[in-house]
Design goal:
This protein has one domain: Ribokinase (UDP-N-acetylmuramoyl-L-alanine:D-glutamate ligase, 3-Layer(aba) Sandwich). The protein contains eleven helices and ten strands. 54% of the residues are buried.
Length: 302
């Protein structure tokens, strides 16, 4: 199922997702059949973002998790997420990933079905070198680009070819950096901003905000408006990106994974809001809600 290009945005609701089912593993499937998600990023100051995104990918149903982060944090990440295989990456003296790390990630990505780049990365100059080394080596892969890694796309420096399927997950400030516009102009018409970047870069764009707009390069636009203010908390974007890469790993299409991830993320926040109050819940509490929400939307779960 796919929405047709329209001047109106398609509301993202539970009813839409029940009609647009994500791939379900067969009864005799193993973890390999649900795909491998590779989460790339981190810096010595914020290695926990990789944990949040990685566990979210598993909660979304990925069969295997790989994490690639700074060498100084690799052992701690391996202990904190024992379900993951952890690759250690070269880092600068400041603890940022550098160009050599980009080459190393490309070497590690061979078996991955979907790759998330960005959680916890710091150092914009280092990131641009890292992305310039990595992106040309990821042909044939499904890739989610999140957080400060999006700065490498400034002024449409990349236009992705058909053999590299990409989802971008910017907030309004990150979108302004990509386009060269102001944050205020992006917030003034987020639907148009998402559509323009989706077409210019040949990528699916999930522009996060009070309403989240998901745009495809082909003119389709979806709108999610059921989220709550409590989602605006540290680490929340890492959870969303992790859910998205997990859904891609298990076989969802780019637009389907983006729509489902945005809904699952918002619905998880709404569950916590009802139980705990509108603000004060933690990002790491979101991913535990995801499996039950997915089950409630599955044709098997009804």
């Amino acid at each position: 199922m796919s929405a047709r290009a329209s001047k109106r945005s398609v509301p993202v609701t539970a009813a839409l997702l029940r009609r647009w089912q994500i791939p379900q593993p067969s009864e005799d499937a193993d973890k390999q059949d649900r795909g491998i998600a590779l989460v790339v990023g981190g810096a010595v100051e914020v290695p926990g973002a990789l944990l949040l995104a990685g566990v979210a990918a598993l909660r979304a149903g990925a069969g295997k998790l790989q994490i690639a982060g700074p060498r100084s944090a690799a052992t701690a990440l391996g202990v904190a997420v024992p379900e993951a295989r952890v690759f250690s990456l070269p880092e600068t003296g400041e603890g940022f990933l550098d160009k050599k790390a980009g080459v190393r990630v490309a070497e590690c990505a061979g078996q991955a079905n979907a790759i998330l780049i960005g959680p916890g990365m710091l150092g914009e100059d280092a990131i641009i070198s890292f992305m310039e080394a990595l992106l040309p080596r990821l042909g044939g892969k499904q890739v989610v680009i999140d957080a400060i890694a999006l700065s490498a796309l400034r002024r449409s420096r990349f236009r992705f070819t058909e053999d590299m399927q990409v989802v971008l997950t910017p907030n309004s400030a990150e979108m302004a950096k990509i386009t060269g516009a102001t944050k205020e102009s992006v917030e003034g018409d987020p639907r148009a901003a998402a559509m323009t970047v989706a077409q210019d870069l040949n990528a699916v764009v999930a522009l996060k905000g009070p309403e989240t707009f998901i745009a495809t390069p082909y003119g389709e636009v979806f709108r999610y408006s059921e989220g709550d203010v409590g989602l605006a908390t540290s680490g929340s974007g890492d959870i969303l990106a992790g859910i998205l890469v997990g859904l891609l790993a298990r076989g969802a299409t780019l637009d389907q994974a983006a729509v489902w991830a945005v809904y699952l993320h918002g619905a998880a926040g709404n569950r916590l809001q009802r139980r705990m109050g509108p603000i004060g819940f933690l990002a790491r509490e979101l991913f535990d809600e995801v499996p039950a929400i997915m089950s409630s939307l599955s044709s098997r779960g009804r």
